[in-house]
Amino acid sequence: MNKLTLLSITSLSCFLIFLSGCSSLDNNQQAEIVTHQAQTERNKKLATLTNWKINGKMAVITPDERHGLTLNWHYQGDKKKQVLNLTTILGIQVFNLESVNGMHTVDVNGERYQSSDLNKILASLTSFTLPTQAMTLWLKGLPYLGTDVISYNAITDLPESLISYYDEKKWQVKYSSYRQIEQYQLATKFTIKQGDFSIKINVHQWDVSINDL
Fold it and tell me: pTM for the whole thing?
């Protein structure tokens, strides 16, 4: 089984297009944060947010490659379902993950693979680590493990950085922008790093309504 190398699908020019689009945000149901929530209050609210959708841009950066992708992720924690789709800026599908009740199906390069071990199937198919399980919490500024360390902004009380150990590796998440989306304060720009590998995400839209997949 050959690992997926995004270099054969997208190019540096797509990455530059990604960077040029990072400044725009869809303002639908989103606003600048106008209320202050204490850490405990915010975390309790976000712990109940198990169903969400995000649309935006994602950059995958390694020492040798940089790739710009469009990200669409629909997650339903209460039903143990998710759909994660990555396409190039030109609309070519690179990666599609569907999970239902612990069974994970990945479509890549016209081939379909299934496994109950998400970490194993992702490691076998990609040349980079995509910590999707932990990211469902990191995206909300919540810890994946009880040992995770979160640093908060002294003025806003919002997370500025998070350090976590996922798959026996040290990960750091940095949050640089937030929006008020209904009752939640959610990050719209953040960087996830592990060693010399980075994932940069710019969320254009959060949807916190309950929708069926």
Answer: 0.82
